[in-house]
């Protein structure tokens, strides 16, 4: 990659609560009061704060099914700017397919659900550190991620693509036409790796959130955005003038979809998750949740 440009954003600290981590800085809201039925919408949850996370630490034994039941709370990390998988409704509540899946898992365990809405680069590291039980954030089970955490079976599949301005569909129709052009994607996402591997002659614009990538595309600051096909189609519904590009983005079929991350060695929780994913897939729940989330995102015009 010729050059990587990363735009840094400052995270706002919640009044009266400051939490620091070696990886990220963020803030948290109070947990919901209705056990096993509510979703906490921490506007920017603490990365590494014991008081905010309420988790006991980095031993897999502290995040097993029985340990979570004894604690009475399932703690999940996400980054809620990725419709229809995770985003916020008009009241700031975290909704979407991943939120529905997280709530279903909490209900199965008979515990309260707390969702920590944090920077995407921290959703997995918080699980590694023991500050959360699992990460459900549209994560692809890449070989790199599997080295640091356990990844569940896929709960939703889908390929990768490029979003371009409709007016530039023919202008950027070949890989060669993208040489020297700026391509944008979310920092830390699978698309960053795909960009470096498949488009080494392009410039990389790495941003904290996909909506920022779309905004840059609309202003002409980049030629294309690398993104998953499901989200690309969602943006096309809510944003005029976008189109899926003609240049393909190749992916490994085994990593072509979304999976849940848990702490390395936590096979107990992993087996529970895989069992429930299979059940929710078979009974149609996951597709129903996805359809509902997609309809809601479209009605909100979510970017």
UniProtKB/TrEMBL annotation:
What sequence ranges are listed for the domain Solute-binding protein family 3/N-terminal? 73-293
The record's InterPro entries line, in alphabetical order, gives: Solute-binding_3/MltF_N
Query: Does the keyword field hold Membrane?
Result: no
Return any one Pfam family short name.
SBP_bac_3
Keywords, sorted A to Z: Signal
Q: Per the record's keyword annotation, is Signal included, yes or no? A: yes
- Source organism of this protein record: Candidatus Ruthenibacterium merdavium
Protein name per its UniProtKB record: Transporter substrate-binding domain-containing protein
* Cleavable signal peptide: 1-30
């Amino acid at each position: 990659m010729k050059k990587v440009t990363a735009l840094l954003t400052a995270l706002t600290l919640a009044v009266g609560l400051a939490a620091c981590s070696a990886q990220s800085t963020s803030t948290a809201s109070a947990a919901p009061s209705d056990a096993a039925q509510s979703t906490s919408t921490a506007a920017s949850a603490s990365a590494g704060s014991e008081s905010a996370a309420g988790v006991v630490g980095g031993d897999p034994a502290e995040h097993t099914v029985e340990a979570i039941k004894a604690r009475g709370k399932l703690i999940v990390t996400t980054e809620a700017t990725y419709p229809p998988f995770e985003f916020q409704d008009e009241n700031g509540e975290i909704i979407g397919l991943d939120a529905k899946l997280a709530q279903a898992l909490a209900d199965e365990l008979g515990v309260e659900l707390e969702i920590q809405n944090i920077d995407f680069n921290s959703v997995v590291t918080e699980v590694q550190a023991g500050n959360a039980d699992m990460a459900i954030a549209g994560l692809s089970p890449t070989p790199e991620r599997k080295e640091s955490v356990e990844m569940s079976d896929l709960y939703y599949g889908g390929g990768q693509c490029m979003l371009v301005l409709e007016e530039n569909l023919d202008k950027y129709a070949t890989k060669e036409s993208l040489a020297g052009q700026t391509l944008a994607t979310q920092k830390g996402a699978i698309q960053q790796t795909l960009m470096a591997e498949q488009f080494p002659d392009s410039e990389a614009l790495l941003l904290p959130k996909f909506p920022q990538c779309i905004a840059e595309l609309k202003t002409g600051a980049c030629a294309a955005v690398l993104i998953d096909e499901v989200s690309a189609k969602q943006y096309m519904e809510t944003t005029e003038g976008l189109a899926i590009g003609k240049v393909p983005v190749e992916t490994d079929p085994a990593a072509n979809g979304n999976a849940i991350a848990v702490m390395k060695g936590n096979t107990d929780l992993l087996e529970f998750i895989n069992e429930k994913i299979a059940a929710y897939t078979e009974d149609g729940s996951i597709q129903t949740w996805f359809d509902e989330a997609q309809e809601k995102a479209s009605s909100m015009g979510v970017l």
